[in-house]
Amino acid sequence: MPELSPRRRLLVLAICCMSLLIVSLDNTVLNVALPALQRDLDASTSGLQWTIDAYTLVLASLLMLAGSTADRIGRKRVFMAGLVVFTIGSALCSLAPNLDALIAFRMVQAVGGSMLNPVAMSIITNTFTDPRERARAIGVWGGVVGISMAAGPLVGGLLVESVGWRSIFWVNLPVGLAALLLTLRYVPESRASRARRPDPVGQVLVIALFGALTYAIIAAPTAPAAEILVLGGIALTALTALLVYEPRRAEPLIDLRFFRSAPFSGATVIAISAFAALGGFLFLSTLYLQNVRQLDALHAGLWMLPMAALCFVCAPVAGRVVGSRGPRLPLLIAGVAMTACGVLFAAFEAETRNATLVLGYVLFGLGFGFVNAPITNTAVSGMPRAQAGVAAAVASTSRQLGQTLGVAVVGAVLASGVGAASYRTAFVSATRPAWWIVAGCGLVVLVVGLVTSGAWARGTAERTAERLESGEVREASRVSA
Description:
The chain is an all-alpha fold and 481 residues long. It is built from 17 helices and no strands. It is globular, with a radius of gyration of 21 Å. It starts with 5 loop residues before the first helix and ends with a helix.
């Protein structure tokens, strides 16, 4: 890709951030609309889980395929295709006649979304080649998540109360169309120097692993034990097959050599943990504010504004800190804050008092605001630029998998605890185990962040990058010969 002027680079960053905005905003807005969906479509707790998890599950399953495909056939081309499919999926969601149709159309959205975030991150990585500039650009990228979290509850609450839940999908239509036109005009095409071959077997195994695992967790409170065991067996078999099959391929869907880098492996674990906490946090908070406190969607969004505001403020700060001092300090802050938030709800029932409820939201916003930039920067900065799409896709997959599992696990805990009782009487006691899970996710962020951000870990990243680059050179020489 040719070297761009500073102004053009910023424009490319803005266009990529537009894609992240609609994908992130869609999840945040939908969380606020869950009680309205529950009433209008007569949805159970598991039905609400699937409206979120069907989307994140398809995303997680296809992100690596999208990243490698973009590296192979062109990042701009795949990015534009993703915008088209996502926008069409959003229009279909707004017309869904029932819950099953909504879940199916959410999956169409996710197919388009899988072509956006990892490909956009790959475009950013290849546009901002200076490590400091890249870290700051990624900080801005992370700040967009904060914007979506700040705008989502307010925009979603206003739309749900004034127009209805279907209108939340209309927001994506003008933004998606504008991003498509700007991409066509201003984003240069780029691709990896050597095309990677598809890996259909690996793709099927990934879908089987993620799908069976998520279905087993969501169905656990109500399904027969034999069904859960079968689903667990499918997931375990798919995982074993991936670990055996992928290293044997010259160009696997998941290059397991990436995980020889301690920072990359740490970023993957941290992403899963942090986004599991986020998925569970948003799911519980939305249902509590509207079904227990009986707030309307707009006022529920206002209650969550402190969390969103902290995410918005802290994400670009984290990007600058990562660029100047490395990822350790942001991960330390994130882990401590998210752990403290989970403990506050689990041990002290923070939701029962206004002051502690706001404090819990502030702590989570602080923690999540600091966690995104070090995840992304660590995942892509130590990898060869030719594999930026695949590396970014693994990081994005980890996020979506974490959010999928967070909603699945926390929703299952809530469904088991509430049972036949009403939300208003049983919610607080039923969610205490779920809040301990959130606290545990924060603790994982803290411990893994400290372990994988030192000098030893950086050494493993350098050695891994050297092996990957030398392997690419040998394979290219073999193919040309």
